[in-house]
Amino acid sequence: MKRGSKKPKNLFSDLPQSFPEELMEVIAEDQHARIERIVSHGHVSPEGFWYDQQEHEWVVVLHGEAKLIFENDNDPLHLKPGDHVLIPAHRKHRVEWTAPDEPTIWLAVFYRADPK
Fold first, then answer.
1. Phi, psi of 67 (to 5 degrees)
2. 77-97 pLDDT, tens per residue?
3. Phi, psi (5° rounding) for residue 14?
4. Is residue 51 part of a domain?
5. I need a surface site. Which of 59, 69, 72, 112 has the fewest CB within 10 A?
């Protein structure tokens, strides 16, 4: 929501009917953190691709289901609504599966570690 805006936005609205790639929308950001709404619908990470991010990521599934897998782990984390996980910076991970029959709505908070 823009500063001073009196009209709220809803995380569950404005969902496209179909889309070729995950939808990532920045909701708020500054130099320290970024909050994104991510919408998946059967999307997965490309074969052999691993996220290796500079920031820490806290992510929660609000709707739908997903499976995340971390490098050197054999068992994916199966996330359902309300499940959340903190992914430390440079912890390689990928989206192994998202529900194909409904949108999976994620809320992700990215932030950098305090350099102290």
1. -125, 125
2. 999 999 999 999 999 999 999
3. 60, 40
4. yes
5. 72
- A 10 A CB-CB count for 80 gives 12
Show the tokens assigned to 34: 């970024």
Give me the number of domains the chain comprises.
1
Q: 76 is written with which tokens? A: 């994916």
Burial label, 32 (beta-carbon count in 10 A; 0-12, 13-18, 19+): exposed
CATH number at residue 89: 2.60.120.10
Report CA Rg, the chain: 15
User: Considering the domain boundaries, does residue 6 fall inside one?
Assistant: no
Taken as a whole, the chain contains a residue count of: 116
Which range of residues forms the domain containing residue 49?
A: 36-112
| 6-32 pLDDT per residue, tens | 789 999 998 887 788 899 999 999 999
